[in-house]
């Protein structure tokens, strides 16, 4: 098997990732139990840590799929350790997505792992490698929203319910943005293997600017409104109510005054 060509140490989970998981668990417990004196801080730390975990899993999914597709170099690059510091663009993969969550409450697709595409054989494998990352966000969103669409919210503390709703919103926005067929994003990576050589050569120079182009479009009120209409439709289909999402974001921004409608559960 392909995985046999990677050393054991190249596949061991990084202590950095274990530490992030620990922060997620502790702050999740604090949010659930109301242990924190200021619930907003617990929500902020829990959502941020869980968001970073999802970013690591997103990149791991790309790397692991590439490994099975034929790129045996991903192990030596540290991509299989879930260590965010090993990514080719740690700033794009971790720092900027976290900043965008803090500033705008939107899941920014990160930059990432460098796959040696010449080692991959078959167009379907190339497409699957690109799709693996955002599909991880889809799975993460399904887990976060499970209590909502399963009707299992009885006994779930409000702060934790709010945090899950906001975290799910980040995963849905990240998945939707990543699946856009725009050069530089995973959605384009899915369809690229099926395009002609001429088209790929013409599009290639625009790849570094794809994400900037998307966010420039999102500044347009009409595009922004249409985008979040789609997000709202998806969240409602998952039975995540607007109130929980709104209050989740309000509690996340603990440095701002929490609306009175959201503070009764604190």
Task: Give the structure's gist in a few sentences.
The protein is mostly helical. The longest helix has 31 residues. It is a multi-pass membrane protein.
Topology overview:
Layout: H1 15-33, H2 39-69, H3 90-104, H4 123-149, H5 158-178, H6 186-191, H7 197-203, H8 210-218, H9 221-237, H10 242-252, H11 260-263
Helix pairs in contact: 1-2, 2-3, 2-4, 2-5, 2-10, 4-5, 5-10
Task: Explain how this protein is built.
- Belongs to the peptidase M50B family.
- It is found in: Cell membrane.
- The chain crosses the membrane at residues 12-32, 38-57, 90-115, 127-150, 162-185, 205-228.
- It comes from Streptomyces bangladeshensis.
- The chain is mostly helical.
- 63% of the residues lie in helices and 0% in strands.
- The chain is built from eleven helices and no strands.
- It has helices at residues 15-33, 39-69, 90-104, 123-149, 158-178, 186-191, 197-203, 210-218, 221-237, 242-252, 260-263.
- α4 packs antiparallel against α5 (158-178) and α5 crosses α10 (242-252).
- The protein is globular and about 55 Å long.
- The mean pLDDT is 88.
